[in-house]
Amino acid sequence: MKLLFVHQNFPGQFLHLAPEMQRRGHDVRAITDAANTNPSPIPLLRYGYKPPEVDPAQTRLGRTYTTMSDRGVVVARFARQLRAQGYVPDVIYGHSGWGETLFLKEVWPEARLLVFAEFYYRGTGADTGFDPEFQGCTFDQVMIAQGRATHLGQALVHADRGLSPTHWQADSHPPLLRRNIEVIFDGVDCDRLTPNPQARFTLPDGRVLHRGDEVLTFVNRNLEPYRGYHTFLRALPEVLAARPQAQVVIVGGNEVSYGQPPKDGGSWKEIFLNEVRDRLDLSRVHFVGRVPYARLVDLLHVSRVHAYLTYPFVLSWSMVETLAAGTLVVGSNTAPVAEVIQDGVTGRLVDFFDIKGWSAALTDALARPEAYLLMREAARTMARERYDLRSVCLPRQIDLLTRLERG
């Protein structure tokens, strides 16, 4: 099979699938933005993309489509050069989020096109307007949110198949598009995440945390409202007051992955930390920034309880990885978290905005680890049965690609 991956930040969701397909003897290549500096496990072809200058006053609801379709044009022109050199893929698998797949069928009409349909923006019922503290929900904002999905719908209309990692993310698409989407999670390496009694995690000040220590963790790419950083920090003072031996490790950068940056500048990290700073023992709250994956695995293994919050939006790999590591997850009772965690069986669910509820749940989990042993084991079993990379997710992804190639 000639298989072409398309992702502006490759490998992204194709981190494991691309090299596995190459290992199986397929001709595997990838197209990515020239600005992407991620190391690649397969041959990488780079297109040059300069975002268009978009005047919000002129483009209004079309400004997202203008940017994404412009990228799609750049990628299609690059693809035409590949075609002129004789390259014709059997299957193209691309992320639809940045418009890269929009016109590839015009270049390679004989190829099968699979798009990673991660999320379909809605005016209501998902992330828009969920958090009134930071989001307005005027009718204009509802229309703007819906307008952001224009290129996502177009991508699916021209695709042979779509793939979403969770049922809720697939169901965010309109019914006519939903019919063409299969649900297969990206997968986590449950073997690598097997609980490690000898795990250690060294803090920036040199102290070393061990498995069995009273450790509370919070992990996200960036520390921001979309991932509940504000709720978590506001719950911490009561937790630390009740548990004088607890250590809190917070992983994440200071940028913005989702939503808007603070209106008055600065970072969300500092804004919310300053809000509770005078009520926290900061010698026990450790901000470690972003960490290499091996260090993250060690951290999950020494963690006694892990807090994961999100608006109704895309699910983070880190939550499922934490379940697979056998660490208790206290998650927000939002979609798609509640699709993965069954409250009281494979973890705990707390209302996203319930500060007192979060303090109580996290305190109890730190204080009574023995009470959650069966829950942690049930979570690890569930993660292996439903989300394991090698035995479940990769085989299903490869089967989908094979079916597409065969038509």
Class of the largest domain, according to the CATH hierarchy? Alpha Beta
How many E strands? Answer: 15
Structural class by SSE content: alpha/beta
- Helical proportion, percent range: 25-40%
The spatial strand order of the largest sheet comes to 3-2-1-4-5-6-7
Spans of at least 5 consecutive residues whose pLDDT stays below 50 are: none
CATH architecture of the largest domain: 3-Layer(aba) Sandwich
CATH topology term of the largest domain: Rossmann fold
Overall morphology = globular
In the CATH hierarchy, what is the superfamily of the largest domain?
A: Glycogen Phosphorylase B
Global Rg: 22 Å
Mean pLDDT: 95
Distance between the termini: 13 Å
How much strand content do the residues show? 15-25%
Characterization of the model:
By secondary structure, the chain is α/β, with parallel strands linked by helices. The chain folds into 2 domains: 2-187 and 389-405, Rossmann fold; 200-387, Rossmann fold (3-Layer(aba) Sandwich), CATH 3.40.50. Helix content is 38%, strand content 17%. The chain contains 16 helices and 15 strands. The chain has helices at 17-23, 56-59, 63-84, 104-107, 139-147, 150-157, 167-171, 175-178, 229-242, 268-276, 293-302, 317-324, 337-340, 355-367, 373-387, 389-405; strands at residues 2-6, 27-33, 44-47, 91-95, 112-116, 161-164, 181-183, 200-202, 208-210, 215-222, 247-253, 285-289, 305-308, 328-332, 348-350. Helix 9 (229-242) packs parallel to helix 10, helix 9 packs across helix 14 (355-367) and helix 15 (373-387) runs parallel beside helix 16 (389-405). The radius of gyration is 22 Å and the shape is globular.
